[in-house]
Amino acid sequence: MDPELIDSLHADLNAADYRADSITALLGAGADAARQRGVFAPALRALAERGASPLATLVRLFLLAGRVERAELDAAVPALGTVGALALGLVRADDADGLRAALSLNPVLVADACRERPLHWWIISDLDDQLRRGPARPDHVMGVGGATRSLISQAPPAEAARCLDLGTGCGIVAMHLALRGDVVATDISERALMLARANARLAGLEQRIEFRLGDLFEPVSGEQFDLVLSNPPFVITPRGDGDAPVYEYRDGGMAGDGLAERVVSEGPAYLAPGGTLLCLANWESPWGSNGLERVRGWIAAAAGAAGPLDAWVIERDRVDPAQYAETWARDGGARPGTAEFEGLMGAWLDDFTTRRITAIGLGAIRVRRPAQAAAAPMFAAAEESHGAAGTVVEGTVVEIDQAAGAYAGDGLGAGLAAAFDAGVRAARMSDAEVLDTHWLRSESVVEEREHTPGEEAPRAIRLTTDRPIARRVAADPLIAAAVGVCDGELSLGRIADALATLLEVDADAAAEALTAGFRELAWLGMLAPAERPL
Question: What pTM, to 2 d.p., does this model score?
C-alpha cells in the first residue's frame, strides 16, 4: 500500500474523529453494541436521525456494510479521495456512482500495560463475517479479535529491547510490542505483511517494526529476543480433505496441535537470558491421556534445547471435539443446515475420531529463560495434580493450571507477571527458604467464612481474589490465620511457630503445611515474597 496514501488516510480519519468513543456517541451505546453483534438496524436508524457528516459516512461504509455515493466519500476523506481509497483497495465500485467497503477499516481502543490510557488506532484487515456475509478468502487477514485482545492484555508491561511478533497477521500485536522496544514481525502471508505495514504506518510506528516473510522461526534464525508474543494459527484442522478450505490466519498446516507444539518446544531457544515467550495455543487430549501433560512434555523438550526454563501453562477451557468443530466451521462462514457446514463438521469429527481425541484444551503458555543459569533445585515436588504448586525438574519450573475464573479488567499483564515471578521464586526455594521468607498478602485477597448458626467454628473457610485471575480456594484455620498476618513483618517460620502454639498443633506439621500452601498461593497471586531492606 502506498505510504503517501496511508498518510492522507490518517489525516482524514483524524479530521473525521473516526474513533471508537465518537462512534458510540454518534450511534448511542445500545445501537453500537448491537452493531458489534452484527445487528445493524438500530445503528442505521440512528444514522438516519443524525444527518450527514464525514463520521456518519465512514461508519455506514466500513462498519455497517452500507453503500455510499462517490461524492459522499470524497467529502468524508478529502485528502485521500475516492481515487485514493480505490487505489488502496479500501473500497470497490458497487455501480456507476456507488461504493462499498472492500476491506475493514476499524477504529480500535485497546489497553496496554505500558500505557496508563487506552490507545486509539485504526486497523485495516479483511472484512469480518458480519460484513462479508459469506466464506472468507483463503489468505484472509483477521482484524482485532477476542483472542488477540487477550494476548495483548496478558503481555508483561516491562520494556524489552528486542521483541518478536510471531505470526503478525494485521500487525496489532507488533504495534503493541513497539511500545516496549524494537520489533521483528513475521508471517508466512505476504498479504498479511502488506496490511500490517499499512497499520503500523497509520499508527506512526513503522520505524520500530521490521517485517519479515517466512515460516515460524525461520526468518529469525540465530537471533534472540527479550519478549516474544504469538497468536499463531493454532486451530486444529483436519488434514487430507482436499476440498476443505484452508485459512492461513488459523491453520498452521500441521496435523493436530503440531503447530502449537513447535512454537512452545522451539521458541525458548530464541529467548535472550531473562526473555519471555507468551503464546496462545490449543492442545489435544488423546484417549487415555491428559493434554496438559503433553504440554509439559513440549516444555521439557524446549528445556533440553535451551536450558532450564520457568513455565506457566493456563488452561482457560476444555471442550469436546464436536463443540470445537462447530466453532471453527462457523468461523469460516458456514452455517448449520448447509451442505458446507455438515461437510466441515464431518471432516473434523472424522479426524478427531481417527486420532482418538477426546478433548481440546484452550489457553496460554508463558515460558521464561532465567536471567542466570538456574541452580540445581533444592525443592522438587512430586508429580502434582493440575492446579497444585509448580514442579521443579532438572532446574525447570513448570506450573500446570486450570483457571476458568475471570481475568482482571485492568492491570492484567502486570498482575500475571507478578504472580509468575512469585510462583517461580517459591518453587525454586527450599522448604527452609520458604519458612525464612517474609511474605506479603495481596490487597485483593478476601476471606470468606461459612457458619452454621449457633456453632462457634466455621464450617468452611475460603480465600478469594479477583486478580490477576478470579480464584476461590478452600483454606483450613492454619492457612487462613497465616495469610491473615502476612504483612511482611514476620517470617513464615515465626508465624508457623506462633500458630502451632495457639492452635495446639505439632510445630513441624504446621510448618510443612504452610510451606506447601504458600507455594500454591504464590501462583494464585495471593502472596508474594516481601522486598525487605538489607
Answer: 0.91
